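[scheduler] slot 2 assigned
[scheduler] job type: sequence-to-structure, two independent chains
[scheduler] chain ordering preserved from manifest
[runner] begin chain α
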Amino acid sequence: MSLGQVDSAPSNTHQAALRSEVNADSVLVFQGSETLFDLPNLWLRDNCPCDDCRVPQTQEKRFILSDVAADLAPESVSIDLDALTVTWPDKHCSQYPLATITELFQSNSQPLQSWPEGFVPQAYSWDEFLGDSRVTAEAIETFLRYGVILLSQAPVKEESLELLAPVLGPIRELLFDRIHNVSMEGHVYNIAHTSLGLPPHNDFASYSFPPSVQALHMLQNETPGGESIVVDGWAVLEQLRADRPDYFKSLCEFAVPFREFDEANETYAVEPMVRCDPQGHLVSFRFSNQLMQMMNPMQPGIKTFYQAYHELCLRITDRDSPARSTFKLQGGQVLLVAAHRVLHARESFQPIGKRHLQDAYFELDNVANKLVLLRRLNGLNNG
């Protein structure tokens, strides 16, 4: 039984005597008659924690697996209540704390946190978000849990999104503009620069790796209509997976072309709409009706894909969906969305009065890293 096949961690390695045994290509660890671990020889050698095999200052691996033979086997092994010790043919000795191995059975994936009924994104003060570390930590935790928050009392000055970098990390620059202006004046290169309604989508589906965080900063909103909408795309997908696993499979496998361009720029990607990790957990959702391009109608799988896509569109645009929230984004508010999960949209508006929004892009890895640093600063657990 390999590590990847174990369903749960050993309950208590101190209840009975432990023993180890060298197998053909691995080391087995038993507690009584129960197999606790089946540790491949190459895995063991690759993960030696000693200072010769790792850089002590950084804990990065220094040892590389090509330095040993593919059929490497231990010369001897021993075990006690705390550690497994392996001696290799070259007399190198590796010691593995059992607690460290046990921790590897714990999944890092968090279950999807569904939005409660009547969900509206939690609002936090702009100044406190930037200046109070505990408020920042709470806001980021909420953001990572639900994929969306609001910041209120933000400056109504252009380029204010630059001020978010100390919390969200550096702005991810994309083509067209570093900070994008969304209004009916100036550079018009997509539907967002009109008064038409925008269906739920995430931006830059035309990039091979679209930005994973988007900040939408409303500077002025004096037009009738134009309510903002957010949709929990992952919740929609999970329900679709439960109802129609064949449709979900098609969305994971069928590659779709997306294009965004203007006179000077061209972005084009051909990717499936849904991506999961090897365990089947959702990783990213790519959905943009306006950027999706015409496809070869004779390619294999396209009929099933279009049935799946039709059903997905019905669910994404369902105004009564519990995964949908509608509200008016006022001047001085910033909508922050985890863009690989949450889709954003806009109702149509009457083109009278001023409506000016700016948006910029960040990366979720940097936001999550900020939370780790804040927890250390505030003396909080990482759990």
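[runner] end chain α
[runner] begin chain β
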Amino acid sequence: MKQQKIIILILSIVIVSFFLNFIWEVSHSFLYDWNSLPLENDVYFYILKIFIATFGDVMYTILIFFIISIFKKDISWIYSSKKSDYSFLIILGLFFAIFVEIKAKLFNLWSYNQYMPQILGIGLTPLIQPAATSALTIFILNKFIFRAKTKGDRK
């Protein structure tokens, strides 16, 4: 695969993942306790925290993509992803979510409010986020971006 195509592929993943994770972060932010340190109930702090969290989520999506690429020994698996690839995306997403949430608890990086549904002390929405957004990123790229580009190339 040419270097230019790899750069376009990675940028495509970053852009789609950024928008999906940004929407997710804003949507579930009300489930965190913004009145308890280290969080602050301040709009500027909130905006910065949401963007930092979103960029972190994008990095996990890219990392998951590269782990699968290394396992498959081919970066172009994304163009014809299979159900097993989505299973990998979901499993790795859950693994990273558990890691992040346990680390956050150990270092007191944030706390949930009473509305956050939890499983064994881990918030449900952050638990499923990397799995859902990573899989959805690849699905969107496959169904709408790569497929449309391939059809356009044939004309």
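[runner] end chain β
[qc] chain β: The chain has four helices and two strands.
[scheduler] slot 2 released
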